[in-house]
Design a protein that fits this description.
six-stranded antiparallel β-barrel, Rossmann fold, 35% helix, alpha/beta
């Protein structure tokens, strides 16, 4: 399970036709048991299910909609137990302005045709009204998705004729996996809409791809942007005690290896005691900043001049921001707010989400080297990440402690968030592999990535690079472990943004 669903509220209603019940004794009870099974499946996944039961006419649909509104559900699930008119479905969802899943899950893989009467058929005619409901939803402007497959019952239902034990059938497993993906996407959407992202300092000057409209971010994702001053951090760093620094240093030593001098880069040295103490002090101040402003993420940058206090603060942020990122508070450097949201999405999918850009292309071994000078998500590291001292940050002011690491070898996903010429947010995603092999020893994170279906598939570096650039991306992405596209695609649908997989 990629994320926790316990806070998701799912409004479930089963649908049938009231005229059937007196005509076919026992049918209502049988179909109601199917709905109860669907409810329990989602509860076992961790969702808080608000079950309206059987909706079989227009008044009961209105009542179900009222119940869902009172509970402020995040998602509505319509389980089709048999034929029902669309007029008794639309009222349950129309006023809610929530996405809807239509569960078209048949109890049996195959009807016993020669033994089946009308009542038995009606218990297995889920597909009958799905096109009608879909048409009604489309014309009424109700966002929906249909999941078709088998119900996956573990036992035979009393009175059924065909074999209903389909729990191990691939069509049942696939259908419930699809439900779980939608629950994951809803969970991410819900959390984003309640998140507070700190914006500390300003965007790196001149990086036109990264400038963000705060209102657009709130309008698209529901996130609140808390604008912070370097003074807010400075006052908290000044209040840090020696005991707190020692505790933070102990935490750092448990998580990171402390490097010796780099064998290849004279700028990358063993961190000095002074620089490591300063990085730990700033890290404690960052913890206080996050707690005091109740932040769920942070994007930051401050150029600074003349070895001023703010320049020193800016140069001391990488370690503390790496620790925060590792602990579920993603931090995006250079003031890239859009990428902070991408990192948050990946973190909510339990994929990590590390601050990353393209570093170099390898046309011999056919991969792309990607990384950054921090922050890094230590929870997705291949081996223990390393702290190196840098005598300068390339393209930035100051010096200090940086993180050197690579992302865990195996399947990975990159997620980028960009803005189109006509002002819309677009999500860009590519799945691939983190490969073992030599990497740079320059105090930066860097990983060897190949974006193919299988790790050893042929990879045309130039073709992928041209295709990615053609989408107008920002130059930063969130790099996470696992293949997450199936969740990200559904999230893009839920928040109604443009989406492209490469």
């Amino acid at each position: 399970m990629p994320t926790e669903f316990s806070k998701i509220k799912v409004g479930l209603f089963s649908i049938g036709l009231k005229a059937y019940w007196p005509q076919f004794p026992g049918l209502l009870e049988r179909l109601t048991s199917y709905g109860a099974f669907a409810c329990e499946k989602m509860r076992l996944m961790g969702a808080n299910v608000i079950d309206a039961g059987m909706v079989d006419d227009q008044p009961s649909a209105l009542a179900a909609g009222d119940m869902f509104a009172r509970h402020d559900v995040d998602l509505v699930v319509c389980y089709v137990t048999t034929y029902a008119t669309s007029s008794q479905v639309v009222p349950a969802v129309q006023r809610l302005q929530r996405p809807v899943l239509i569960l078209n899950l048949q109890p049996t893989a195959q009807i016993s045709y020669l033994k089946t009467g009308t009542g038995e058929w009606l218990a297995n005619c889920q597909a009958c009204c799905v096109p009608e409901i879909s048409c009604a939803f489309e014309r009424c402007g109700i966002p929906f998705a249909t999941i078709t497959g088998l119900l996956g019952l573990p036992n035979q239902t009393l009175g059924s004729i065909a074999n209903e034990i389909t729990a191990e059938h691939s069509a049942a497993i696939a259908a419930w996996n699809e439900v779980e993906r939608w629950l994951a996407a809803i969970s991410v959407k819900r959390t984003l809409s309640r998140s507070r992202i700190g914006f500390l300092g300003h965007t790196y000057p001149g990086m036109l791809d990264m400038y963000s409209d705060f209102t657009q971010q709130t309008g698209t994702f529901g996130t609140h942007i808390e604008v912070l001053e370097m003074d807010d951090l400075d006052v908290r760093v000044n209040a840090v005690t020696a005991r707190q620094i020692v505790a933070k240093r102990n935490q750092v030593i448990e998580l990171f290896d402390i490097s010796e001098d780099s064998p290849s880069d004279p700028l990358a040295k063993k961190p000095s005691d002074e620089s490591l103490e300063w990085a730990c002090k700033v890290a404690v101040g960052l913890d206080c900043l996050v707690n005091d402003f109740n932040l769920d993420g942070l994007t930051y940058y401050h150029r600074g001049v003349g070895d001023s206090v703010y320049e020193r603060l800016g140069a001391g942020l990488i370690l503390g921001c790496s620790l925060l990122t590792t602990n579920g508070i993603p931090c995006s450097g250079e003031g890239d707010l859009k990428n902070c949201i991408a990192m948050k999405i990946m973190d909510l999918l339990k994929a990590g989400g590390s601050f990353t850009e393209l570093y170099a292309m390898d046309f011999t071994d056919n991969f792309i080297l990607m990384g950054h000078d921090g922050p890094f998500h230590a929870g997705i590291s291949e081996g223990r990440p390393i702290l190196r001292g840098l005598s300068l940050y390339h393209g930035k002011s100051g010096a200090g402690v940086s993180v050197e690491a690579e992302v865990r070898n195996g399947p990975v996903t990159i997620l980028g968030i960009t803005q189109t010429r006509d002002g819309f947010i677009k999500l860009l995603c590519s799945e691939g592999w983190s490969l073992p092999g030599d990497r740079l020893r320059i105090g930066n994170t860097n990983s060897r990535l190949r974006f193919t279906a299988a790790a050893d598939d042929p990879f045309d570096v130039a073709d992928w690079m041209n295709a990615w650039a053609a989408e107008g991306p920002t130059h930063h992405v969130a790099l996470g472990v696992g293949h997450q596209e199936k969740f990200i695609r559904r999230l893009a649908s839920l928040i109604d943004v443009r989406y492209k997989k490469l």
